[in-house]
Automatic annotation (TrEMBL), chain A:
<dbReference type="InterPro" id="IPR023010">
    <property type="entry name" value="GcvPA"/>
</dbReference>
<dbReference type="GO" id="GO:0019464">
    <property type="term" value="P:glycine decarboxylation via glycine cleavage system"/>
</dbReference>
<dbReference type="InterPro" id="IPR049315">
    <property type="entry name" value="GDC-P_N"/>
</dbReference>
<dbReference type="InterPro" id="IPR015424">
    <property type="entry name" value="PyrdxlP-dep_Trfase"/>
</dbReference>
<dbReference type="InterPro" id="IPR015422">
    <property type="entry name" value="PyrdxlP-dep_Trfase_small"/>
</dbReference>
<comment type="subunit">
    <text>The glycine cleavage system is composed of four proteins: P, T, L and H. In this organism, the P 'protein' is a heterodimer of two subunits.</text>
</comment>
<comment type="function">
    <text>The glycine cleavage system catalyzes the degradation of glycine. The P protein binds the alpha-amino group of glycine through its pyridoxal phosphate cofactor; CO(2) is released and the remaining methylamine moiety is then transferred to the lipoamide cofactor of the H protein.</text>
</comment>
<protein>
    <recommendedName>
        <fullName>Probable glycine dehydrogenase (decarboxylating) subunit 1</fullName>
        <ecNumber>1.4.4.2</ecNumber>
    </recommendedName>
</protein>
<dbReference type="InterPro" id="IPR015421">
    <property type="entry name" value="PyrdxlP-dep_Trfase_major"/>
</dbReference>
From TrEMBL, chain B:
<dbReference type="GO" id="GO:0016594">
    <property type="term" value="F:glycine binding"/>
</dbReference>
<protein>
    <recommendedName>
        <fullName>glycine dehydrogenase (aminomethyl-transferring)</fullName>
        <ecNumber>1.4.4.2</ecNumber>
    </recommendedName>
</protein>
<dbReference type="Pfam" id="PF00266">
    <property type="entry name" value="Aminotran_5"/>
</dbReference>
<dbReference type="InterPro" id="IPR020581">
    <property type="entry name" value="GDC_P"/>
</dbReference>
<comment type="function">
    <text>The glycine cleavage system catalyzes the degradation of glycine. The P protein binds the alpha-amino group of glycine through its pyridoxal phosphate cofactor; CO(2) is released and the remaining methylamine moiety is then transferred to the lipoamide cofactor of the H protein.</text>
</comment>
<dbReference type="InterPro" id="IPR000192">
    <property type="entry name" value="Aminotrans_V_dom"/>
</dbReference>
<dbReference type="GO" id="GO:0004375">
    <property type="term" value="F:glycine dehydrogenase (decarboxylating) activity"/>
</dbReference>
<dbReference type="GO" id="GO:0005960">
    <property type="term" value="C:glycine cleavage complex"/>
</dbReference>
<dbReference type="InterPro" id="IPR015424">
    <property type="entry name" value="PyrdxlP-dep_Trfase"/>
</dbReference>
Length: 452, 532
């Protein structure tokens, strides 16, 4: 009860002020037969030490990425996060602040959001960005919904994106009546640009392309953008690994109209899938169709620069059923973490980090592809993530056996596509700056043994 | 920024130079101004040292490589720490004082929760690791799910929704899937006019038409109007209980029975579950689906806007339609994640996936830590103290301010006031901004819409009596100043990092990114400088 500051005397005094005989008199609108039910099997309060013991015992049952050679990506990436990031986001004035609806006393959060929007827009090559969404997958379907509002069409063409993003979009499409056509991935070097282009028609609202895609292949965005625009469709680009944009040309510069992404790579950490951070950028002319929060610059009554949440006439608390989205809570604290990490890197640090990731991945891919029975799918280049074809093996079983040897080797496509037998040999391997030479050597030796 | 001598000081002023209205830095003692990162000298700097030298771009990638690094400033570690620390000091936060925000519960955030969420066994695991290597994480989900089901008296819980509004979507989609599964496509969701804006937005996003249900004079859903509207086209109702007027919906069971009799289902917005946790199980009132904002009831930090987490408890009827993924024990007692609607998993009725991965794991560890700390006895005390505190505020202030439902009896977690007692020309906003000068975050204002000039105050259970007395004294003083027509109240706040901000200007010509042309902080206006 260490979090409850009222003493028994306080409670007595307060009830006297209220004029109530007991606390339950305050619950008198609750029907008596449902008040104060018995809860079987739930324990009473516990000390800080006891709770800590319990939680630590649960944590110990998990194999932490940092304790083993680790090569998983596929939408969640392990990067080194400088200690100052976590320190700063734990400052109570950030951690325990509310949504900045009262701008006079929320300038800290608001300025961070304005800086974050600028960083994301420059990274994506878009004119503007919002103040964050829940994660990459929900940002992706919000982008599809936004494209529908802009084009007033309901056809959606989707390239080989992360299958969780696809099934999230499919869930929503059942209710919004969008018609989705998607290109399934195949264990070949071609990212399927021409196949995607061939699916675009006059009813297409948007084309959704992941950059790099789920197998680590890099689509030719400029070519797809031209084809989409020629049919009056928008190009939505999905970026699950923003560090890639330290090295690759930005989607906006290549013609993307809306760019969404998962920002977890910078500052946030793996966290077993959440909380993560949805990034969302777009062309300026679509500002009023954007979902989510926007922070804008203005001045106060003294003429000093300040920031406020703005254009709220798009939002649910004003527009109710006519809002651009039902999103209310965003990922403010994760946006702060992203922004701090990005500030520490700067453009040049991001460039260095991206090149290190790329060089280490190329090094590992060469070693792995040299193993008997392993083929590298990504013959046309990749950033820090590539797909191995383990010829004649179920990659999910191989990954499982390697995990028993304390090596987390990659994401087997069979985990993501349980019913696609043609992908069962695929293992998506991600190599970041956190992967050591020893770790790579351990993976190479163990994989060779497993496949022998 | 480089505008020296903004103070207007001149050598000839000598000793009598007391015209100092502004310092040259813009700072005033510990009231600090901070430029944007783009205005600090971040060219060619980096606050990260790397182990390895950057390598060349491989030939295969070269055609996709960008020509120059992203145009972003970098700062060294000390500059970065200072920038964000200085910014943090321009924020109000629950660590500094109460957020008396009705319907947006803000309570103390225990630091044990933070420490537990950061254990590498939780924070440094990948969502797609082989399932045998994350059994402890699955146990966290399983244990939290068990608590949530038992506390609400419901059959199942969908853990993946990312926030309250995402949870609403989950609940409405489950309702839709269940109705469609019985071949009963309905078109309308009823939403009381006092509902959160997310409710109608959610229903519309899920493809429903939204119709409002009026409130009665005592601030509750009009049961007669509701039942009169029921029919074969009504899929369900979205109802908040305790509601946004701070009142318990006495007729909740009757509402549920009426919906069910008419073939519809009941969604409960659980935003205010903190007021009844351990006291009332929504399942006993006939609710079919309800989201729980973990950050509200179970104290995960709000972080300046998020992350949230919105698990949705479901009745036995809706459980088969729950979204993937979810955790289940197999016949060997191992926990596994059911995450695809594949041939093997055979889940013909799930409405599908609504986000990548398994939800807000970092919030689950925090919430479970909080729940175990309180235990079932402590959680009941949470609700009792939250309700006691709210009623104490209501009764202490109703002589000074109009409490539209004060006569209706006790309130639940929040006390509602209106601007009816304020003189002409003084508004709810003036009271709110006046609170800032008193060192408090303003209450929720102009919501719910059913009350004119609404002021919705929710103290929560983590405020002490002494703290409440200070807040009550501040509110009384503001009410008295308004009644005495103190004009200075209209330009409050006077003692905040910023005075009232020009929101019209921000919306009329939006400036959403830095373009190198902003007004530096602390720059006086033309009138202040004496220019025309």
């Amino acid at each position: 009860m260490r979090y409850l500051p009222l003493t028994p005397d306080d409670r007595t005094e307060m009830l006297a002020t209220i004029g109530a005989g007991s606390v339950d008199a305050l619950f008198r609108d609750v029907p008596a037969q449902v008040l104060n039910p018995a809860f079987e099997g739930l324990p009473p309060h516990a000390s800080e030490m006891a709770v800590e013991r319990h939680m630590k015992a649960l944590a110990r049952k998990n194999l932490s990425a940092g304790d083993v050679p680790f090569f998983l990506g596929a939408g969640a990436y392990r990067h080194h996060v400088p200690a100052s990031v976590d320190h700063l986001i734990q400052r109570g004035e950030f951690l325990t602040a509310y949504t900045p609806y009262q701008p006079e006393i929320a300038q800290g959060t608001l300025q961070v959001l304005f800086e974050f929007q600028t960083q994301v827009a420059r990274l994506f090559g878009t004119d503007i960005a919002n103040a964050s969404m829940y994660d990459g997958s929900t940002a992706c379907w919000e982008a599809i919904a936004m494209a529908g509002r802009i084009t007033r069409r309901d056809g959606v063409v989707i390239g080989p994106i992360h299958p969780h993003y696809l099934s999230t979009a499919r869930t929503m499409a059942k209710f919004t009546k969008d018609e989705i056509r998607e290109l399934s991935p195949a264990l070949i070097a071609d990212a399927g640009d021409d196949a995607v282009i061939g699916m675009i028609d006059d009813k297409t609202s948007c084309v959704v392309v992941q950059y790099p895609d789920i197998l680590g292949r890099i689509p030719d965005l400029a070519k797809i953008a031209d084809a989409a625009h020629a049919k009056g469709a928008l190009l939505v680009t999905v970026v699950t690994e923003p560090v890639a944009l330290g090295l690759l040309e930005s989607p906006g510069a290549l013609g993307a109209d809306i760019v969404v992404g998962e920002g977890q790579s910078l500052g946030v950490g793996l966290n077993f899938g959440g909380p993560y951070l949805g990034l969302f950028g777009a062309r300026e002319k679509y500002t009023r169709q954007m979902p989510g929060r926007l922070c804008g610059e203005t001045v106060d009554a003294d003429g000093k620069r300040g920031f406020v949440l703005t254009l709220s006439t798009r939002e649910q608390h004003i527009r109710r059923e006519k809002a651009t989205s039902n999103i209310c809570t965003n990922s403010g604290l994760c946006a702060l973490a992203f922004s701090i990490h990005m500030t520490l890197l700067g453009g040049e640090g991001l460039d260095r980090l991206a090149r290190i990731n790329h060089a280490r991945a190329v090094y590992a891919a060469e070693k792995l592809a040299a193993i008997q029975g392993v083929e590298l799918v990504n013959q046309r280049g990749f950033f820090n993530e590539f797909t191995l074809k383990l010829v004649g093996h179920d990659a999910r079983e191989v990954a499982h056996r390697l995990a028993q040897r304390q090596i987390l080797s990659g994401v087997a496509l069979g985990r993501l596509y349980p019913d696609a037998t043609d992908l069962a040999e695929g293992l998506v391997v991600c190599v970041t700056e956190t992967c050591t030479d020893e770790g790579i050597a351990t993976l190479v030796a163990a994989l060779a043994e497993e496949l022998a | 920024m480089n505008a020296p001598n903004k103070s207007g000081w001149k050598p000839e002023m000598g000793e009598g130079g007391t015209t100092l209205t502004q310092t040259s830095s813009g700072d005033a003692g510990l009231a600090l101004e901070e430029p944007l990162i783009f205005e600090l000298n971040g060219t060619g700097k980096c606050g990260v040292d790397f182990d390895a030298e950057p390598g060349d771009v491989s030939p295969a990638l070269a055609k996709f490589a960008r020509k120059a690094p992203v145009d972003l400033p970098g700062l060294t570690e000390p500059e970065t720490v200072r920038h964000y620390t200085r910014l943090s000091r321009q924020n109000y936060a629950i660590d500094l004082g109460p957020f008396p925000l009705g319907s947006c519960t803000m309570k103390h955030n225990p630091r044990l929760n933070e420490a537990m969420a950061r254990l590498p066994g939780f924070a440094d695991i990948h969502p797609l690791q082989p399932m045998d290597t994350v059994q402890g994480a699955f146990e966290v989900i399983e244990q939290l799910a068990e608590w949530l089901c038992k506390l609400t008296g419901m059959e199942a819980v969908a853990m993946s929704p990312k926030a309250g509004a995402h949870g609403e979507l989950c609940g409405i989609l489950a309702i839709r899937a269940a109705l469609e599964a019985r071949g009963d496509a309905r078109e309308v969701i009823l939403v009381p006019e006092s509902a959160h804006g997310t409710n109608p937005a959610t229903a519309a996003f899920a493809g429903y038409r939204v119709e409002n249900i009026p409130a009665t004079k005592d601030g509750r859903v009009d049961l007669a109007a509701l039942t009169a509207r029921l029919g074969p086209d009504v899929a369900g109702v979205m109802i908040t209980n305790p509601n946004t007027c701070g009142l318990f919906e006495r007729e909740m069971k009757a509402i549920s029975d009426a919906l069910h009799a008419a073939g519809g289902l009941v969604y409960c917005d659980g935003a205010n579950f903190n007021a009844i946790v351990g006291k009332v199980r929504p399942g006993d009132l006939g609710v079919d689906a309800m989201h729980i904002n973990l950050h509200k009831t179970f104290s995960t930090p709000h972080g300046g806007g998020g992350p949230g987490s919105g698990p949705v408890v479901l009745s036995a009827l809706l459980a088969p339609f729950a979204p993937i993924p979810f955790v289940r024990r197999d016949e060997k007692g191992r926990l596994r994640m059911v995450e695809e609607r594949g041939v093997k998993d055979n889940l013909p009725q799930t409405f599908g996936r609504m986000t990548a991965f398994h939800g807000q794991m970092g919030m689950f560890t925090r919430a479970l830590t909080y729940i175990l700390s309180h235990g079932v006895d402590g959680l009941r005390q949470v609700a009792e103290d939250a309700v006691l505190n709210a009623n104490y505020v209501l009764r202490s202030l109703e002589g000074d301010m109009d409490a539209p439902f004060g006569k209706a009896g006790p309130c639940m977690h929040e006390a509602l006031f209106s601007d009816d007692d304020l003189p002409e020309g003084f508004s709810t906003l003036d009271i709110a901004k006046g609170l800032i000068d008193e060192g408090f975050h303003p209450m929720t204002v102009y919501f719910p819409l059913v009350v004119h000039g609404a002021m919705l105050i929710e103290p929560t259970e983590t405020e002490s009596k002494q703290g409440l007395d200070r807040f009550i004294a501040a509110m009384k003083s503001l009410a008295q100043r308004a009644k005495a027509e103190d004009e200075s109240l209209k330009s409050a706040p006077h003692f905040a990092p910023r005075r009232r901000l020009d929101e019209t200007r921000a919306a009329r010509k939006p400036v959403l990114t830095y373009k190198g042309e902003g007004v530096p902080p602390g720059t006086p206006s033309l009138s202040e400088i004496g220019g025309s």
